[in-house]
Amino acid sequence: MIAGRIRHTVAFTLAHAEGSAGERDFLEAAERLAAVPGVEAFELLAEVSPKNGYRFGISMEFADQAAYDGYNEHPDHVRFVQERWLSEASDFLELDYAARYYGVLAGLVRRLRLVSSW
User: Fold this and answer.
1) Is residue 99 part of a domain?
2) Dihedral sign, Cα of residue 11, residue 14, residue 19, residue 25
3) How far apart are CA 76 and CA 35, in angstroms?
4) What pLDDT is recorded for position 112?
5) CATH number assigned to the domain comprising residue 83
């Protein structure tokens, strides 16, 4: 991930029974968030590890803070949270990351930027 980009992730469990119509409907509605302007690299994920109680995950990326803020304020996202998420997600953990570079990788990126600016 390039410095300045933001990855928005959430691990969650639904109040719906596994494999139910309610679960399918929620997940289909969640997938429509990929169409919100600014959303990139959208993924709807199924948990495979027994190390936690979450069943699903959503991951998406944004070019920068402005794109991330635009997503959070977009009417489709706000509506999804109010009408679906708050009543149907029984447990969740949201983590949002900004890419950072350290050490050798940071030096390489700086050199590449210098070369590409010639």
Assistant:
1) yes
2) negative
3) 9
4) 65
5) 3.30.70.100
